[in-house]
Amino acid sequence: xxxxxxxxxxxxxxxxxxxxxxxxxxxxxxxxxxxxxxxxxxxxxxxxxxxxxxxxxxxxxxxxxxxxxxxxxxxxxxxxxxxxxxxxxxxxxxxxxxx
Amino acid sequence: xxxxxxxxxxxxxxxxxxxxxxxxxxxxxxxxxxxxxxxxxxxxxxxxxxxxxxxxxxxxxxxxxxxxxxxxxxxxxxxxxxxxxxxxxxxxxxxxxxxxxxxxxxxxxxxxxxxxxxxxxxxxxxxxxxxxxxxxxxxxxxxxxxxxxxxxxxxxxxxxxxxxxxxxxxxxxxxxxxxxxxxxxxxxxxxxxxxxxxxxxxxxxxxxxxxxxxxxxxxxxxxxxxxxxxxxxxxxxxxxxxxxxxxxxxxxxxxxxxxxxxxxxxxxxxxxxxxxxxxxxxxxxxxxxxxxxxxxxxxxxxxxxxxxxxxxxx
Lengths: 99, 314
Ligand code: FES
Ligand SMILES: [Fe+2]
Fold this sequence. Notes:
The complex is a heterodimer. Chain A has helices at residues 21-27, 67-71; strands spanning 2-6, 12-15, 46-51, 54-56, 74-76, 80-82, 86-90. Chain A is of the alpha+beta class. Chain A has a single domain (2-90), classed as Roll (Ubiquitin-like (UB roll)). Chain A has a five-stranded mixed β-sheet with strand order 2-1-7-3-5. In chain A, strands 4-6 form a two-stranded antiparallel sheet. The longest helix of chain A is centred in the first third of the chain and has 7 residues, at 21-27. Chain A is globular, with a radius of gyration of 12 Å. Helix content of chain B is 18%, strand content 37%. Chain B is globular. The model of chain B has no long low-confidence stretch (mean pLDDT 96). Chain A binds chain B through residues 34-42, 44, 58-64, 94-99, and chain B through 14-15, 59-62, 154, 157, 185, 187, 193, 195-196, 211-214, 219, 244, 246, 263-269, 291, 294, 298, 305, 307-308, 310-314. The complex binds FE2/S2 (inorganic) cluster (FES) and fe (ii) ion. Fe (ii) ion binds at residues 150, 152, 220, 222, 271, 273 of chain B. Residues 22, 35-38, 40-45, 76, 78 of chain A line the site of FE2/S2 (inorganic) cluster (FES).
């Protein structure tokens, strides 16, 4: 288990290295990163890794994360597993459908 | 004589192998064709036309186009003219542009979504045939969806700029394509802003629906199941396959439909939908859901909205 720390809110949770950053959070019923499709397509779980290393798993929609961003540690939390203690910043937002 | 039903939807997927596992093992479709470009065509067991879903390989998820099948070539010509008369440009695509599909007319809805109409597609028949058919086939997989039922599209709206392409789409579908409205959701002062629209061209409560959002996109594609029990079984299938469920089995106030929302492996939202609710008719008074009851309109039991459902789409 690795500690995942959210830089801005100082929230923290423990995530296994066999599950994604987002799946680990969802399993605990936590809500610090927005959750959508959990499959790399909708982009709401976009984060920037500030500290620590992750392993990418699965494809990410290029509409939401460009190659350029990816090279700077920006990725989708549902498509990366922690390899060490992680500190991250949430970038993704729930953009509201009108109702 | 005119539009009959949703003929197919074409969507983008990022990992074709994973997508095929999902649409075959969870939804229960069968692959009927793969073309040279790697696009895969699938059908449900109770559908007779060769395909209702086209998966196209891409580096993103989302909508390509939706096509509706019309009664015959005469209807196709007439509807193409009505679309032109409405002021929307129409492109004619020759037969074979899509495999085993007759000629199509192609245009964009006011919301920007690409739409096509066609009159002919190769018929494979349902999996139980048309002579003394059994009620269901023996090799049904997963949820065993009967057919692609409808899609819900997110339409760009910005009240500040006076943009509401949902309302533009509604007028277009009613005036040019002869759909009729069954239900609506309205908000704002005196319910002056429409944020959801359900349209039918058959006796089903909806054949297409629109919701308003900050940008146009795909909210979900929906597959028909017979009963509430089939919905429960479909949820079991999803749990077994570790499918990401967005909204567990419940009922909509709108359309009275019984439902599950979930995501395909690229993040496109799917729905399995049961219960035809009521018979939609052109003279049935329009059903209106008001802002204070919008939670119950969408999720009838809890009456509260699910954040991902109202914010996440591709
Ligand atoms: S939750 Fe949709 S991309 Fe991660
Ligand atoms: Fe639906």
